Amino acid sequence: xxxxxxxxxxxxxxxxxxxxxxxxxxxxxxxxxxxxxxxxxxxxxxxxxxxxxxxxxxxxxxxxxxxxxxxxxxxxxxxxxxxxxxxxxxxxxxxxxxxxxxxxxxxxxxxxxxxxxxxxxxxxxxxxxxxxxxxxxxxxxxxxxxxxxxxxxxxxxxxxxxxxxxxxxxxxxxxxxxxxxxxxxxxxxxxxxxxxxxxxxxxxxxxxxxxxxxxxxxxxxxxxxxxxxxxxxxxxxxxxxxxxxxxxxxxxxxxxxxxxxxxxxxxxxxxxxxxxxxxxxxxxxxxxxxxxxxxxxxxxxxxxxxxxxxxxxxxxxxxxxxxxxxxxxxxxxxxxxxxxxxxxxxxxxxxxxxxxxxxxxxxxxxxxxxxxxxxxxxxxxxxxx
Length: 385
Ligand SMILES: Cc1ncc(COP(=O)(O)O)c(C=O)c1O
Description:
Blueprint: E1 4-5, H1 17-30, H2 40-60, E2 68-71, H3 74-85, E3 91-95, H4 100-112, E4 116-120, H5 130-136, E5 141-147, H6 159-169, E6 172-176, E7 195-199, E8 211-215, H7 217-222, H8 255-271, H9 274-293, E9 298-300, E10 312-317, H10 322-333, E11 335-336, E12 338-340, H11 345-351, E13 358-362, H12 369-384
Parallel strand pairs: 1-11, 3-4, 3-5, 5-6, 6-7
Antiparallel strand pairs: 2-8, 7-8, 9-10, 10-13, 12-13
Helix pairs in contact: 1-8, 2-8, 3-4, 9-12
Bound molecules: pyridoxal-5'-phosphate.
The site of pyridoxal-5'-phosphate has 13 residues, from α3.
């Protein structure tokens, strides 16, 4: 049976051959620890990390390469941000469409550090009205943190308007770009961001265990370190160095993963940048949404419009449990999807699918129109069972 992967919101598959080659090549040909030994291969490892940092800074339009910090994933990046920036008594504004990577650290900080959190309710299709967010701002609001696109419905949040608003009030602004980095063009400066948290293994097409946090000048200064340890720099100091990226990056980096991530970003650039994938995945999304509309008994969540969402679609079929559907699609048709709550219970409460959840299809760089047709045909057949 042919395998059809439609779970790119979890991780992108397949990876471009260049990503696999670069990851393996680093281990085979270099493999040394960057910033540690002064021998030639050690310096080669440092150069690779430096070039990857520069590539990502240019990709997201961050002014200085050292303001891109490598992490293990976006969850790690968000923890560095939230626990490094917030202090007891601070107020934070977020949305009701967030992933647990935002809501769980905030829940802990709320309990233990008495951080006050206002969650702005989104509409049933996941959209956020900037006027509602504006009303939630208080004098003590230190940070607004929002997902750029929901991993449940694909709904894109109005980050440009919110960036403008936060900048006018001097409030730090952060986005969780897990679902958009590599797929929707992101300009750190134009969006007036202080923090852009990204993961390497989804739209950026890199290996798992990679990610990063981009910082504005004031954001970089404001953050305290989440962890302390060896950086290969200023080893005589008892304290963590204050300079970036070392302040926020300690312990041995995932060098093989970073080499693969850089190859993923290069692959995207060679294709014409994220706009190329946005258009390609947008065509698949439109065709899928049109096809779903023609099948009776299917409820589709989210805006249902190509311009307003990433290529992620949540559905339910009358009379079916989403988990059962996902199982049958895999077993009978080789179609891989994800069912349930997708680590985003608040988003499901917002769209009215908590606690049962939905069946989610998410398309990526290597899906084709044939895949869309095959999925729609499978759904038509399931409807007649
Ligand atoms: C919006 C969002 N935030 C955070 C995450 C967590 O990503 P990672 O597991 O790479 O840290 C995901 C992944 O599903 C996501 O979709």
